[in-house]
Amino acid sequence: MTISQTPLLISACLMGEKVRYDGKALPHTEIAALCDQGYVLIPFCPEVAGGLPVPRAAAEICNKAGASSRCCVKNCAGDDVTAQFYQGAEAALTQVKKDGIATAILKEGSPSCGSRQIYDGSFSGQRIAGAGITTALLQAHGIRVLSELRLDEL
Known about the structure:
The chain has 4 helices and 8 strands; from the N terminus they run E-H-E-H-E-E-H-E-E-E-H-E. The chain is of the alpha/beta class. A 4-stranded parallel beta sheet has the order 2-1-5-8, covered by helices on one side. Strand 1, helix 1 (29-32) and strand 2 form a beta-alpha-beta unit. The longest helix has 18 residues, at 82-99.
């Protein structure tokens, strides 16, 4: 496959789609420029794909999963939204398989998309090392995940 045919899964918010929890987008000019380099950009928001509305209450992973358990995700109102986060992650996996995607560029810090850091579950703005639900699932299936802060590794 040549670079002109290389598809990348991209967090939809980074491509200017208003899908974030707060109804905003975070368009990233360097990501948009990847089209000029011949990449095919496929926008995707796992939280929306999992059935969550826009806008929605902010959510954070409230526990780190052990080897045989799943993470718990709650929003700031205390509602358990774990099922929606896992449903969105599965939808992302289906998308990458369908389109033959080997690399995803996902929003750092997100409870779905964070690749190196996520919020600590206290809704205090504190970050910890960790991966979001979608990132962890994609990585477990051999998909390379980068954040918008690591485009130089592409």
